[in-house]
């Protein structure tokens, strides 16, 4: 499957009839999904609402959940994001360029997390301020799922996203964890979500109003600071947009910030810590960047340093990971992990595996979606946000969520699905 100039092409290489030795190019028709139905996942809608309520109460200090709110638990922060196993050939293209970036002087946490976290909890370094909680849903179809058809529909509906299919992990993500090209690193951070009701273009003012308010701005600031703190030590000239822009998709509108910088050579003084951010004592490069010691770190090394960001984990990372493990109680698999491609020179693009699902059988796929939870989160609207984020895959599969909250989330998914025509013409 390929994409060029906004057009998608599919090529199937299959045995040529009885002639097992010969291969021929055959245009096998795409099969639209038939009879899709949604089954409950391991985190039900009801459980998700309860999780959100518990998490925000813990952040406000009005309840304590196990170890999570008590300080700095032991949990490995990397568990918050999916496993870093999903590399492949499926990521194509690149969302359009953003406005010119501003400069972040010192990308440390000092001016960021504490400020964004508000007054109440400030001063308690280990106190939980943001956690991204997710839930899942299972879609089953009558016939085998034709992944090509799902990809085609995602590509058509979400042309500015990176569409992927890596070992059965299928989706279209709007978020670039990192791109590395000849020593230049880029990233697109998303956090803060407006749910589209009918028409994204007509709702930009409403989105701007919601996303400009305290909750979403703070949520976004956490995500930027998290990236800057981890990437800054590797890229001393890292620039992050001074102001976020709106990323308009068919189902949601996000606050988005782009970052760009030069990767300092591995082992150089600059690379080893002139970024000055927390974590810079960590040794940069431990053998993964093949070649001379002066080579910039490879995309794998950079990914190891930045994943998971606060866009899928939380702040602080360890406390958020502990809370996520405790409340979700389910394995996210590769959801929220890096997905994309890399080459043998250390270049590549790794998106964050969002708006996706993992095939579990030929006719069954498990979808995941999450939302950033803050002290003032409302469980119903966070649930509805996850429904809106499930909508792209549901629509591509010809499925719709059952009514979950007196119609609100069902409506959101319903307006965006099902497709009236076969996924790709
Ligand atoms: C966690 C997801 O999305 C992330 C969370 C967002 C938010 O909370 O506003 C926005 C974009 C993503 O960084 C997801 O799509 O599952």
Topology, element by element:
Blueprint (H helix, E strand, L loop, with lengths): L1 E3 L2 E3 L3 E4 L2 E7 L11 E4 L4 H16 L25 E2 L25 H4 L13 E11 L6 H11 L4 E5 L2 E5 L2 E6 L2 E12 L8 H9 L1 H18 L7 E2 L4 E4 L3 E11 L7 H5 L24 H8 L7 E2 L1 H12 L9 E5 L5 E5 L3 E6 L2 E10 L5 H19 L10 H9 L9
Parallel strand pairs: 6-16
Antiparallel strand pairs: 1-2, 3-4, 5-7, 7-15, 7-19, 8-9, 9-18, 10-11, 10-17, 11-14, 12-14, 13-14, 16-17, 18-19
The chain binds ligand ISJ.
Please tell me about this protein's structure.
- With 425 residues, the protein is of the alpha+beta class.
- The protein has a domain of 286 residues: Anthranilate synthase (4-Layer Sandwich).
- The chain is built from ten helices and 19 strands.
- The strands form four sheets. Strands 6, 10, 11, 12, 13, 14, 16 and 17 form an eight-stranded mixed β-sheet that branches. Strands 5, 7, 8, 9, 15, 18 and 19 form a seven-stranded antiparallel β-sheet that branches.
- The radius of gyration is 21 Å and the shape is globular.
- The C terminus is likely disordered.
- Bound molecules: ligand ISJ.
- Ligand ISJ binds next to strand 7, strand 11 and strand 19.
- Pfam families: Chorismate_bind.
- This is Isochorismate synthase.
- InterPro entries: ADC_synthase (IPR005801), Chorismate_C (IPR015890).
């Amino acid at each position: 499957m390929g994409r060029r100039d906004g057009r998608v092409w599919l090529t199937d290489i299959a045995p040529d009839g009885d002639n097992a030795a010969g291969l021929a190019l055959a245009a096998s028709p795409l099969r639209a999904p038939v009879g899709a139905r949604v089954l409950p996942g391991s985190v039900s809608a009801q459980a998700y609402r309860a999780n959100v309520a518990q998490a925000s109460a813990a952040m406000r200090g009005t309840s304590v959940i196990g170890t999570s709110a008590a300080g700095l638990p032991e949990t490995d922060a990397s568990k918050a994001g999916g496993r870093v196993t999903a590399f492949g050939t499926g990521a194509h293209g690149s969302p359009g360029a953003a406005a010119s970036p501003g400069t972040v002087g010192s990308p440390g946490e000092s001016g960021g997390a504490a400020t964004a976290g508000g007054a109440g909890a400030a001063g308690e370094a280990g106190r939980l301020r943001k956690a991204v909680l997710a839930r899942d849903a299972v879609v089953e179809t009558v016939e085998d799922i034709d992944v090509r058809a799902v990809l085609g529909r995602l590509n058509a509906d979400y042309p500015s996203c990176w569409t992927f299919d890596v070992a059965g992990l299928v989706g279209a993500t709007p978020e670039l964890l990192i791109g590395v090209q000849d020593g230049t690193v880029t990233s697109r951070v998303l956090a803060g979500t407006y749910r589209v009701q009918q028409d994204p273009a007509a709702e930009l003012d409403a989105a701007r109003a919601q996303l400009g308010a305290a909750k979403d701005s703070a949520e976004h600031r956490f995500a930027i600071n998290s990236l800057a703190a981890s990437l800054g030590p590797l890229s001393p000239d890292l620039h992050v947009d001074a102001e976020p822009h709106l990323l308009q998709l068919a189902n949601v509108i996000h606050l988005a910030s782009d970052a760009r910088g030069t990767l300092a050579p591995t082992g150089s003084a600059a690379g080893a810590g002139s970024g000055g951010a927390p974590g810079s004592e960590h040794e940069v490069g431990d053998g993964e960047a093949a070649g001379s010691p002066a080579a910039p770190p490879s995309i794998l090394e950079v990914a190891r340093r930045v994943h998971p960001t606060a866009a899928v984990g939380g702040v602080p990372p360890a406390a958020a990971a502990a809370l996520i493990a405790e409340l979700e109680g389910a394995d996210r698999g590769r959801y929220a992990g890096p997905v994309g491609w890399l080459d043998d020179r250390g270049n590549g693009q790794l998106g964050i595996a969002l708006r996706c699902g993992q095939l579990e059988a030929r006719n069954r796929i498990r979808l995941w979606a999450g939302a950033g939870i803050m002290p003032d989160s409302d469980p119903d609207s966070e649930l509805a946000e996850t429904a809106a984020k499930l909508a792209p895959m549901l629509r591509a599969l010809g499925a719709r969520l059952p009514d979950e909250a007196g119609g609100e989330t069902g409506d959101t998914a319903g307006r965006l699905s099902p497709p009236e025509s076969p996924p790709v013409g």
